[in-house]
Amino acid sequence: MNVIFIGISAFIGGIVVALLGWLDSGEAFEIRKFSASIVRALIAGVGIAAAYSYANSITTLDIVISFLAGAGFDAGINRISGAIKAGLK
User: Fold this and answer.
1) Where is 21: in which H helix or E strand?
2) CA atoms of 87 and 69, how far apart (whole Å)
3) Mean of the pLDDT values across residues 10-17?
4) Average pLDDT in the chain
5) CA nearest 5: which of 38, 53, 40, 43?
6) How high is the pLDDT of residue 84?
7) Which parts of 17-67 are beta strand (E)?
8) Contact 58, 49 (CB under 8 A)
9) 10 and which of 17, 26, 54, 66 could share a cystine (Cβ 3.0–4.6 Å)?
10) pLDDT tens digit string along 27-64?
């Protein structure tokens, strides 16, 4: 059950970063762009939960770390894809 909390925490971290990025951009909300962030957040949540499934115990600190890892995953993939797009132009 604790692994589910880890996955949800990572997912929420990715969504929060996506929302903060949208708010910072000043652009109109586009569900197409946001749906990519949702998919990245799901991947982060599942991946981090799978990694934590081998842990013997999960503490509050682990949940905070998974939130930050989910946020970092979304931000990192977004930066990488932006760099690739800029390089192709």
Assistant:
1) helix 2-25
2) 27
3) 93
4) 87
5) 53
6) 87
7) none
8) no
9) 66
10) 888 888 889 889 999 999 999 999 887 777 888 898 89
